[in-house]
Amino acid sequence: MTEYRTVFRPEAQAELRKIPRDMALRILAKLTELEGDPLGFNTTALVSQPDRRRLRVGDYRVVYTIDNGELVVWVVHVGHRSTVYDT
User: Fold this and answer.
1) Which of 27, 40, 84, 85 is least crowded, fewest Cβ atoms below 10 Å from its Cβ?
2) Are residues 54 and 61 in contact, defined by beta-carbon separation less than 8 angstroms?
3) What are the helix and strand counts (H, E) for the chain?
């Protein structure tokens, strides 16, 4: 099976730095697992933006898109579930 690679948009990288270290490490571990199958792994398409998907990690969410041509998972936003969808 082909592995995807994860790339953070600059704003997502900045958001990840604001998250507590232990949770940020959990998020990074889940993203590493997600590289094997970005459509599975308990992810859901966003209703308002079907091209984007979300990954739950505790009370935090990772919003991402998939580029199947380049085999890239683009992380768009990372944040607490109460605020991540506001952007």
Assistant:
1) 40
2) yes
3) 2, 5
Pairwise CA distance, residues 15 & 79, whole Å:
7
For 36-48, the pLDDT digits (tens) are: 988 887 889 999 9
How many Å from the N-terminal Cα to the C-terminal Cα in the chain? 34
pTM, full prediction: 0.91
Domains, the chain, in order of start with CATH, read 5-82 (3.30.2310.20)
Q: How far apart are CA 80 and CA 76, in angstroms?
A: 14
Percent of the chain as helix, strand, coil, to the nearest 5: 30, 35, 35
